[in-house]
Structures are given as C-alpha cells and as structure tokens.
Write a structure and sequence with these properties.
There is one protein chain. By secondary structure, the protein is mainly beta. The chain has one domain: 3 Solenoid (Pectate Lyase C-like), CATH 2.160.20. The chain is built from two helices and 49 strands. The strands form two sheets. The chain has a 32-stranded parallel beta sheet that branches. It has a 17-stranded mixed beta sheet, with no helix packed on it. A hairpin with a 2-residue loop joins β2 and β3. About 6% of the residues have low confidence.
C-alpha cells in the first residue's frame, strides 16, 4: 500500500522535475545557436557616447586657441575652460559643428584684450550650434559667430557675462534661444539679418542691449539698464512681447517697415519708441520715459497703444500716420501731436500738458482727420494750428480751452445740453445737435 507520505514525496519529485525543465528552457538559451563567430552584444564606447570630447588630444589648439575644431561633428566639454594669455577659448574652423558646453564655464580674462571665448576661425561657415553653458570675462566677445560671416547657426541656453566686447555676436540667419547677456562692455546681443531671438534677455550691458540686422524676429525678449538704447532693430523686423526698461537711451529704435506687438517701454532716458517709416505698432505701452512715449516717422500706424507720464509728448505722429484707439494721459507736453495727412481717431486723451500750455491733441499741419476722440483736463482740448483739416465727432470737457482751431478748417462745435436725472427706461434730452459730425463740449 502506498502511504500518504509516499504520495506527497512523488508529487514533490514530479514538480521539481518540471521546474528543472522550465528553468532549463528559460536560462539555457537556444540549443542550436546561429552559425558564425560568436560576437559581443555590448555597445562600443563610440556607440555609448558618439560625440567627441573637447581635449588637447581630440581638438588640439594652435598658436591663438586653446582648442580648435577642424572637422564637422558633435563635440562636448568635460570640464571648465580657463583662459591662457594670447589664446581664444575655442576656435571653430569647420561647418556642421555642434558644441555642448554641458553646463560648464568658459572663463577668460579681460586682461587679455581681443580674445573671445568661442569664435569662428574661417569665413562663411554654416550650421554651427552652441548650447548649455556660460562664457564670461573674455577680453573680446563671449561668443563671436558674426565677424567671419557665419550663417544659419544656433545658440541655445548660453549665458554671456562680463566680457570686454559683445556678449553674443551672431551672423545672418541665426537663431538665439533662451540666452542671456549680462554686464558686457559692448552690446549684449549683436546679430546679422534674418535672425530669430526667442526668450533672450540683455541686462546691464554698456552699449545696446539687443542690436540686430534687418528682417529679424524678436519674441519675448528684454533689455534692461543698457548704457545706450535697449533695442536697435533694422528694417522689416517683427517684435512681440518685448520689454525695454531703464536704459540710458531710447527704449526701442526701430527702422522702417517693422511691426511691434505687445511691447513695453518703461523709464528710459530718451524716447520710449522711436520708429521709422511705415512701422506698425499695436498694443504697445510707453510709461515714464524721459522724452516722448512714441515718436513715429511718416506712414506709421499706432493702434490700441498706451502712453502715460512721459516727459515730452505722449505720441508724435509724422505725415500720413494713423493713431487709433490709443490711451494718452499725464504726459508733460502734448498728448498726441500730428503733422500732416494723419488720422487721429477714437483716442482717449486726459491730463496732458502739465509742462506748459499744451494740448491733448495738437495738429501742426494740414489735411489731418481728427475724429471721435475724447479730450479732458488739459490746457487745450484740441489745438489746430493750420487750415485744411477736418475735425468731427470729438468731445472735449474740463480743458482750460476746449477748442483752439484756426480759420479754414471743417468743424462744427456744439455745447452739449445737460439733461435732468434719468431713472428707468426713458428720459434725457438731445445732446444739442442732430448733425452726425458735430463735435461736443460738455
């Protein structure tokens, strides 16, 4: 007779046998390996890190550089770099180069003039990328990709500070992203044409904060406390969501046919926005600048802009310009000045002219159309010096002189009629004229 203990023992042995078979199947691998020599399944060092380390072996320098890159490829730093007398930090002599600074620091010395942290050593190089680190205290520029006309480069997440020249210099068609330029003795950023700057800041540089060529795009950038103007931008460029604060020159100097949207200029030592021919500004603000808030050359358009507490005029618009739906208040001289052939429409002007006998709106020439503005609490509400203008649908109140308009203009001014109290659905009185183009004093 088979006992219970014997039965359990046989079951246990069977389970062990099955487990052994399964274990063999799992761990033994194929019984018939593929033909050919056995090779390692591990990655080589070049496969693990395909980039090239910057070193005296891989990228030896020459008479004027610590390291020199002469072949295309992807390179990276393995530690900080410190300047040596008479040498640039890294020279690039090939197109198609990417340098990852890996968070390390290139430290120069302003005692060694004209030597850059990183520079191109050949002309017209293309497709150079530098990213992820800092470049400081060099006797020349922090990074110079511009002097030898490099094109189509990219600089990302680099901080350039305390350099004796320009913080970051770039050539044509370059892109700068998330970079900062601080306390440099030249411009913070200096670029060629067709460049893009995104999320960059230039603070406390001795010359311009951001200086670009033509047809550039500048988004979400700031310039603060520059020794000269904050932004100096050549023609055909686009700026959006940029700010210029406490610079020793103008906030923005913009050349012709450029577009600015949602930009602000605060407490600069000259004009807030000084823009060239045929520029377009919308939703921009100028506050507490030591000259005019906006100075617009001929054929410019300002829409939904705000100019407050500037030490000269709020907005000065030259011939053929349009100032539409803007808010202009407490500026020291005139609120809005229009030269000739301008449209000034739908603006709210108040309390301008505290610096003397000035006006909320002042037309100095002819052929202007001044329409649907509200002007209050100035020495003069609307002041027109020349004949040949049309002034319609405006309202003035509380000015020392509401209307000062020379002969020869098209204008009808009516004293508005005051109504009694109105409560409910009806009441009041006609404003004083049924002429749809009448201006009203109230």
């Amino acid at each position: 007779m088979i006992t219970t203990k014997q039965t359990l023992a046989r079951v246990a042995l069977a389970l062990l046998a099955v487990g052994g078979v399964i274990s063999t199947l799992v761990w033994a691998g194929p019984l018939d390996p593929p033909s050919g020599a056995v090779s390692s399944t591990y990655k080589t060092l070049s496969e693990v890190e395909p980039r090239i380390a910057l070193s005296s072996t891989n990228t030896p320098g020459d008479t004027d550089s610590l390291y020199k890159i002469t072949q295309p490829g992807s390179y990276y730093l393995t530690g900080n770099i410190t300047a040596i007398l008479g040498k640039h930090g890294i020279e690039i002599a090939s197109s198609g180069v990417t340098i990852d600074l890996n968070g390390f620091d290139l430290v120069g010395s302003t005692a060694f003039p004209d030597y850059d942290g990183i520079r191109t050593a050949a002309s017209s190089l293309t497709n150079i990328t530098i990213r992820n680190g800092s470049v400081r205290n060099w006797g020349g520029d922090g990074i110079d990709l511009g002097s030898n006309a490099a094109r189509s480069g990219s600089i990302e997440r680099v901080r350039a500070s305390n350099n004796a020249g320009i913080g970051i210099r770039a050539g044509h068609a370059c892109t700068l992203t998330d970079c900062s330029a601080l306390l440099n003795a030249g411009n913070g950023f200096n670029t060629g044409d067709l460049c893009t700057l995104l999320n960059c800041c230039a603070h406390y540089n001795d010359d311009y904060g951001i200086r670009t060529g033509s047809n550039c795009t500048i988004l979400n950038c700031s310039a603060k406390s520059s020794g000269l103007a904050g932004f100096v931008i050549d023609d055909g460029s686009t700026l959006s969501n940029c700010s210029s604060t406490t610079n020793s020159g103008a906030g923005f100097i913009i050349e012709w046919s450029s577009t600015l949207t949602n930009c602000s200029s605060y407490s600069n030592s000259s004009t807030g926005f000084d823009v060239g021919f045929a520029c377009n500004l919308s939703n921009c603000s100028a506050y507490a600048n030591l000259q005019s808030g906006f100075y617009a050359s001929a054929a410019c358009t300002l829409t939904n802009c705000t100019s407050i507490a500037n030490s000269a005029n709020g907005i000065y618009a030259n011939g053929g310009s349009s100032v539409i739906d803007c808010t202009v208040s407490t500026n020291f001289a005139d609120g809005i000045v229009c030269d000739w052939g301008c449209i000034v429409r739908g603006n709210t002007c108040s309390d301008n002219g505290n610096g003397g006998v000035n006006a909320n709106i002042h037309a100095t020439g002819s052929d202007n159309r001044i329409e649907s503005n509200n002007c209050i609490n100035a020495d003069r509400g609307i002041d027109v010096d020349s004949a040949g203008n049309i002034i319609i649908k405006n309202t003035c109140s509380g000015n020392a002189t509401n209307w000062d308009v020379v002969a020869g203009n098209t204008i009808l001014v009516v004293q508005g009629s005051s109504a009694g109290a109105v409560l409910g659905n009806t009441g009041g009185t006609a404003p004083g004229s049924t002429d749809p183009n009448a201006n009203f004093t109230y």
